[in-house]
Amino acid sequence: MAEDVAGAAGTRRFTGLGHERITFWQGVAIIFGANIGAGILSLPYGSRTGGFPALVIALLVAGFLTTASMLYVAEVALRTDTPLQLSGLARKYLGEAGSWLIFAGIVINGFGALIAYASGGGQVLGELLGIPELAGSLLFYVPGAVVVWLGLKATGRSEQAITIGMVALIAILVGWSVLGPGIDAANLTYLRPYFIVPIMNLAVFAFIAQYTVPELARGLAQHAPRVLPRAVVAGMVATGFVLALVPFAALGMMGPDGITPVVTIAWANELGQAAYYCANVFAVLAMLTSFWAIGLTLMTNIFDRFSWPAGGSPLHRAMALALVVVPPFLIAALGLAGFVSALGYAGGFAGAIMSIIPVLMLRQARRRGDREPEWKAGWVAHPVVQVALVVVFGLAFLYSLLTIAGLVPQGWA
């Protein structure tokens, strides 16, 4: 059951969520599902200017730094007796200001994604099944909301099952590309360093999954605390591999001039309609797994931020779920999904906050945490890594601001 923990100021008490047991592979699937959304299908187009080597460099740098940030959160969670979400951990170690900042980052990033999934899921299902887009959105949202309502254990099991299907579909598409039309090495070896900057910005926000780590801690820390960092690393490695694999196949087969903004169209042109359906089913599954992970973490952060009794009140649980799923659905259903672009820019703010706050939380938790953890971040928490993390994510935020102002150099936008 949940328990009360004193806040940083010692004047307010807030409620932690109860433990729910998950497995290592379910933890990996939650990380992978949160990261791999439909946006992966636009990554080949976004990386075509700089080339595949530029994408690999960007994924390695962004992936390492984001993994470091997630491992900081993992150590903070293991130093804390009560299973708290990011907003609760921030309140415990950084006070109300830090808690509200991280909560704002989670809400901005999460709502932007959920609005995009409400719109995109409806569009794809509408086209695949020949039904109205609104019906497609409802068909997408019902299993999404049900799994989020059922909680961490149901989310872990669902993520694990669907992730297997996603990996199978990607393997089919990549194998088809390699063994069918084939890969042209020249399409994968050109490098234009000038364009690494915009690709790095894409990569930074392809890995934003720090908010899922407290959920993994809630499911692993009690019975397998040393498994927590392994699940984080495995989930991020799997994410990086798949984020590189799709552009590898698409760019390698079609080259920069043949890539379309959404790679499903290019695949259909080269491989036929079967590939189009295969890629779009993957897109739906990718959006669904991201919906589950993001929706669950949004709901549990609402519990933490507003001190709601998550374990014992169906009313509060229903209220939190409604706050998570209803606004994105209505925005998409009313045709206001262009609002996502504004939230996408604000995602730069979310990324900057979610890089800085974990660094500050780790430092405070090492000074005044509740307990000695079974695992520590070690060399990954070296000050050089912490500074690099803050600088890279801060520059990504600056890039977003310059994009809004129309001040980025030619070809970077």
TrEMBL record:
It comes from the Bacteria. Pfam families: Trp_Tyr_perm (PF03222). InterPro entries: Amino_acid_transport_2. It is found in: Cell inner membrane. It is a multi-pass membrane protein. The chain crosses the membrane at residues 22-43, 55-78, 99-119, 131-152, 161-179, 191-211, 232-254, 274-298, 318-337, 343-362, 383-408. Keywords: Cell inner membrane, Cell membrane, Membrane, Transmembrane, Transmembrane helix, Transport. This is Amino acid permease. The keyword Oxidoreductase does not apply.
